[in-house]
Amino acid sequence: MWRRCLCLRDRWRRLLNQPSGGPTAIVRTGANIPSLSRAYAPPAERKRFYQNVSITQGEGGFEINLDHRKLKTPQAKLFTVPSEALAIAVATEWDCQQDTIKFYTMHLTTLCNTSLDNPTQRNKDQLIRAAVKFLDTDTIWYGVEIGSSTSIMGPNIPDRTREVLVSHLASYSMWALQGIEFVVSQLKSMVLTLGLIDLRLTVEQAVLLSRLEEEYQIQKWGNVEWAHDYELQELRARTAAGALFVHLCSESTTIRHKLLQD
């Protein structure tokens, strides 16, 4: 356990000590983006270089402007999102940065970059398979048949169950599937992910259920100062961002702008 904490500490220090880069290098590596090249890896932080953040609607969707410069992805594509609500959420992420831009806290921006650049070149079927593979380690399910198991290998999943799940996931867009696969990789559970997206669970509940083994170890052996607390808060932040991303990519929303009068 202490070895793990030391690894986390060293990883965190390396993250903070990475050199700064350009404004388009805004995606950080992580569990949701495996095997990325170094060219796609972002800086951890850089000094804020803009004053105002605004949104404009273009032909390909909604764009983010940092002062008079259009935001671009790490692969130099124009940063465009499919809905105004998602654009507002991303713009808020950028506007909330203080004197230093902390790219590793900007999970919605990261997910948008991944959807636009698709650095791992995965298609819709590959995203669905990546999410469904976690079903083998889930022990409960609602709406379909699933067995139980007392073995570490987990229960056998009926073919019909997989077909129902694949069919359900296929109804989502590529953007939403990027968010679903991201949340699944955080919670390590397809069941908890869909429970969260279907609003049957809160973020706190889903994260707690995903950490049952770790919580048991903490109760038995005690909490390691800063390490476990940081992991918990970071997991909540990533999970909440992923769930919000899925909803903003899946739902039809209308933004009403108020006219401010003196």
Structural overview:
This protein is globular. The chain has 262 residues and is an alpha+beta fold. Strand 3 and strand 4 form a beta hairpin. Strands 2, 3, 4 and 5 form a four-stranded antiparallel beta sheet that branches. Strands 1-6 form a two-stranded antiparallel sheet. The protein starts with a helix and ends in a 12-residue tail after the last helix. It folds into two domains: 65 residues, 2-Layer Sandwich (ATP12-like); 120 residues, ATP12-like fold, CATH 1.10.3580.10. The chain contains ten helices and six strands, in the order H-E-E-E-E-E-H-E-H-H-H-H-H-H-H-H.
Please render the helix and strand layout as text.
Blueprint: H1 2-16, E1 45-47, E2 53-58, E3 61-66, E4 69-70, E5 80-81, H2 84-95, E6 100-102, H3 107-117, H4 124-132, H5 159-170, H6 174-187, H7 190-197, H8 203-210, H9 212-221, H10 227-250
Antiparallel strand pairs: 1-6, 2-3, 3-4, 3-5
Helix pairs in contact: 3-6, 4-5, 4-6, 6-7, 6-10, 7-8
Keywords:
6 strands; four-stranded antiparallel beta sheet; ATP12-like; ATP12-like fold; disordered N terminus; 262 residues; single chain; alpha+beta
